[in-house]
């Protein structure tokens, strides 16, 4: 009998096993049995050749319609041309070089499976040297259908394949495996299977590879999706349970304390969202178990203010708060911004400080030795109630007197080990608030951030201006780009400032990007290339400076200070300005080669303008042609400022395995079928069942097979990825 742990060479032989290992990273029977088909061709419903796209790796079921051999013009030898069709009216040419012997088996009228990459030559689509498997010679259509069924079942599975291991080879291997395969003990509790009408694991694994009907295939997929969703939700439910059981320190609100004084000085009212989220966080902080809350909000929705109020509540209760930012630029911005908000309340001990206040301290890697010693002393003795910093906060030697709250800004930029390193600086587990300005679809929030309670800020503060976005198609309408530069001049003349964002710093390898079979694509525009062009031509006479991540910290800080002070008209920058940079006087942004950025990144970037009373404008420069996927993506960004709508578009265009961490761990992933877009209802149901099961059996000791299944589907690396988000 073959089990999931059986090496493939024991089942398929050394040669085939080696090919599967080298080209598809499949090593055991379990790897192969969980290598699911990506689609199915139905018996008698042949692949429509009219739908094939140039550059696509395809497998088609087709009939030989014509064949001929002719000498090659440019070199010695001959070329065999085979014309195949599938009954749709379209044909495809298969070419073989110096393989005229194939004429003896590729006879007119024979059906077969042909696999290769679609190319185009003189207006005709073709497959060069395709791999193929012919069905029985002289077969009628019915006989061919029977042979296909014998080969791959009533529904023909089409697998993720490699050139050296085409889909029908995989199908043959799976058939051989299924002959002796002993399914594992079903890990799904019988009560869940009955309540959710799920088929057994053995049935599901057989039917997904050799489905007996459409209904059986649906049931198999449904069950296997449940396994994936349930494993992730159990992992997160266990993490929530451990967090709830961990002893923490309550930090209740103190009447008449710093928070009350701060609220009294605010020149505006909190939005309804800020007030309600603030109450949720205040209640969490008052409990004797550590808070684990995700605060997601639109760009400019006021998340920082919410976090400042939470930090003041902790300081009032005798603790310290640390805000961890991903870059020095952002950490410095936070330090200045929070300092301005607190005023005298953040300058206790200074001449103009409030004696009842606290001190705000900044710790970054670029601090000088004397400044660092002074900052560390304030952190250690508790004088600094609020500490803002970068990764430098994590280093040895940064010791807190009583760390009560950790605020992590732009959570997705930090690894789990970094967050844990900061939490470990507290005597007892501190409260944790993680923030992101990248809107997250509900299912991703449930699946990736499922161990956190979630709060959403969707309301913009009063006085915040709308942002208009437009695509600037540089190749089709060059005049639009000229108009964009004129618009920058107009905004500067009106007393405002501008950003020009580039995908690249410059001086890196600038050789053209080229995929096989495609024409060369110029490298993305760089800051060091665009800056002189603007200074010497398009924006000549304006005060223009650059900002990028490779500049020394003191230079970056100096540039941002000048820009914030209004001494710079145009800042040419990379995505270093993507988050946290707050210059209300900036009203226009031009993003060069906008198609080289992701949807969420574009949304983040344009949030840097329109932060004051004047309306903002974001211009998306591109050479992508109308109708292309890249252009459609930009059109979608230009059409809405609703980050949650854009997050759905972003998810559609990314491999969902990346969202779940498959590519992050660098390991083979068994999370194959679950769709975060289409399976929201299933994920919600799995979350409910997981919470109930973990509530009764936190360590799954009564369900050993389930515990092992969870460990296989959500390995240690992936569990860490889910935790860090």
Automatic annotation (TrEMBL):
- Where is region (Disordered) located? 504-523
What domain of life?
Bacteria
Question: Which segments constitute the Helicase C-terminal domain?
Answer: 480-652
Do the record's keywords include Nucleotide-binding? yes
Ranges of biased composition (kind: Basic and acidic residues): 505-521
- Please name one Pfam family that this protein belongs to: RecG_dom3_C
InterPro entries assigned to the protein according to its UniProt record, in alphabetical order: DEAD/DEAH_box_helicase_dom (IPR011545), Helicase_ATP-bd (IPR014001), Helicase_C-like (IPR001650), NA-bd_OB-fold (IPR012340), P-loop_NTPase (IPR027417), RecG/Mfd (IPR047112), RecG_dom3_C (IPR045562), RecG_wedge (IPR033454)
Q: Which residues form the Helicase ATP-binding domain?
A: 284-457
For whether the record's keyword set contains tRNA-binding, the answer is: no
Q: Which GO terms describe its molecular function?
A: DNA helicase activity; hydrolase activity
Keywords in alphabetical order: ATP-binding, DNA damage, DNA repair, DNA-binding, Helicase, Hydrolase, Nucleotide-binding
Tell me which SMART domains the record gives.
Answer: DEXDc, HELICc
Q: Which PANTHER family match?
A: ATP-DEPENDENT DNA HELICASE HOMOLOG RECG, CHLOROPLASTIC (PTHR47964)
What is the name of the protein in this document?
A: Probable DNA 3'-5' helicase RecG
Q: Which organism is it from?
A: Actinoplanes oblitus
